[in-house]
Design a protein that fits this description.
The protein has a single domain, classed as Rossmann fold, CATH 3.40.50. It has seven helices and seven strands; from the N terminus they run βαβαβαβαβαβαβα. It has helices spanning 15-28, 43-50, 66-75, 91-99, 111-127, 144-154, 173-189, and strands at residues 2-6, 33-37, 57-60, 80-84, 102-108, 131-136, 159-161. It has a seven-stranded parallel beta sheet with strand order 3-2-4-1-5-6-7, with helices on both faces. Helix 5 links the parallel strand 5 and strand 6. Helix 1 (15-28) packs across helix 7 and helix 4 packs across helix 5 (111-127). The protein is globular.
Amino acid sequence: MKIVTIISQKGGSGKTTLAVHLATAAAKAGHATAIIDLDPQGTAASWGDRRTADGPEVISGHAIRLAALIDAARANGADFLVLDTAPNADQTASLAARAADVVLIPCRAAAFDLEAIETTLLLTKAASKPAYVVLNAVPPRSGIGDEAAAGLAGQGAQVIDGRTAQEFEPQGKAAAEIQTLYKWVCGVVDMSTRGQARKAA
């Protein structure tokens, strides 16, 4: 089972949006996919409750039970797991980072967001896991994304650019962007982009 952890110290960075879209891309590709929602706000869990489509499964949980929840997802056949954390660089984020095969750090291309990313980068370095910044909500045809990426690279961050939304407009630009991000993540964690379509967790 491959685990992708999504961490951001700053609220409003698009963390849960990235989590549900990436997990949906994996589920649509045939992977048995689950999301563990570790954010007390429960946004991903609420999203899962509203869904009528099959997969991804969404489980609400607490950091103290993270190891047991991961084991349960594995035992139930999940092969792609996304950990959605609260907007804090705290113990929960640290545990989730240590459990990951790769950490994604969503960030908007705004000065305050870019400044707030340093603590999150330090947390991922302490976990000794590969981490990449995903620039979110970057206006198309603007230089803002390039400037933000250059600034982050100057801090030693590895940057990828991803935006979002595939189910309501599967042929749209955002759908293509999340599909590109999903394929890239599969390459990073050494997992096939196509799965066997089993029921997860």
